[in-house]
Amino acid sequence: MNFWKRAASLQLGPKRYDLSSLFFTFDVPFQDSEELGTATVAAYNLSQSTRASIKKGMVVILNAGYEGDVGTIFVGKVSRASSKKQATDWITTIEAVEALDEWLSKEVNKTYVAGIKASAVLNDLLTMFGLEVGQMELVEDKVYPRGKVCKGKVKDAISEIVTLDCKSRFLIRNGIITISDPTKGLNMGFHLSQSTGLLRSTEETEDTETTTNQTTIDNGEEQEPTYRRRCLLNYHLGPADVVKITSNSLKGNYLIKGGKHSGSPSGDWITEIEVKPA
User: Rounded distance, CA 216 to CA 214, Å?
Assistant: First the structure.
């Protein structure tokens, strides 16, 4: 990676901008959960007609990285947008959400036959939901002896079956659905070290400026400790990935529970991650 040559592009509906034509900042948090991913973008000095054209439901695609190595960190739709003048600049703040239409509008009212398996119900619901399915591996494929009734939001029905009935992970990442074992990682192989972008603290005695969370008790169960780390922006890293970390304090494979990509052409260009031992 050429860390010093930042590159990013922002697509708003049919229009696409890169950092050479538009000054914009972004903040993209992510979690290994069924919660929808969000993004906040601040774009400077868009034309009046462009500012007026940004409406709820408009497609937003954000790519970021470095010259020669740029990848997608967010795909979604505008949920809210507003513009204000600050000194001589017009700043347009855009809030976007993944799978906005599918999550809010798709509904179901169906009764499935006795003896049906969760996988069969999910295949039907996922077809109705309308997003691409990248992986579907259930920890348990529950059987419903008396059948299954699904009524209400399709996303609620899918989430309930996947997480509660089948003890599995339900994740939407860049518009693609993943259903898998929550104890296992999705993508593996990236090595995060000082030479590949891991940031050191100002004291140069630790590899990051963040803290370690101690083991806690949650709902009567002991939770594993988690660790927060920062690195130069890396679009390869995302929720449920497994990353190898080599630093003064951490050595081994770790599962990413959550984090954030954030960037500014003249400020931070970083990825923050919270990890636990894999």
Answer: 6
